[in-house]
Amino acid sequence: MMMPAALRVAALCASAHALQMTGRRRCLHGLGGAALMKTLAPRRAGAEAAPTPDELKKLTLGYQRMQTLLKDWQKITGGSCGNAQLSKEKAQVVATNGGALCDASPLVIQEYIGYKSINDPLYRSEKLMVRAAPLLKNPDDLDQYLEAVNLWGQKIQMSSLNAYTSAWGEANPNGSKAQVAAYMQEAKFDVEESADLLKRILVMLGLPLTA
């Protein structure tokens, strides 16, 4: 997959080496021309500082929290009876008929992917990842890294959207608990894929998976 030009150029020109050799403006012109200069104009002159160790630690903490969410999915998202265990037969009846089921808490998912509070470790994580591009263990991984960052942004956005839709699924016209459960399952798939992407990003940056 071809990465968005602006994202690639921003990461390349954020490196100290590129700035030392050519200067940010010449770097941008050399890599993308005037059109990309317009695209990246809001970034101003001078590279954004590379993330500090404390900032990078947020990615590891965020990954750990996502693993906790996936491990204890039912407990965390199950609302007032998250610990309740339904038999396969009962769960099938509920899903088929939209029968009574404990009220779920899908919006809690947003707390684990950086969409709830500025205090969440993964808040604005995509921007942090772009700033971290010059810190790659292997500079040749840049395209692969930026592709993972791009997909990460898409997946967590879909996770948040499905969580929000699930929260209102039963209140919508023709809504049902079965629809709520379906959107919750989609959100879980997106969180699983997001966690895999975040793991790849951490590995390419040489960051630990546990704090």
From TrEMBL:
Question: Any signal peptide, and if so, which residues?
Answer: 1-18
Alphabetically sorted, this entry's keywords are:
Signal
Name the UniProt record assigns to this protein: Uncharacterized protein
Read off the lineage from the record: Eukaryota, Sar, Stramenopiles, Ochrophyta, Pelagophyceae
- Domain of life assignment: Eukaryota
Write down the species: Pelagomonas calceolata
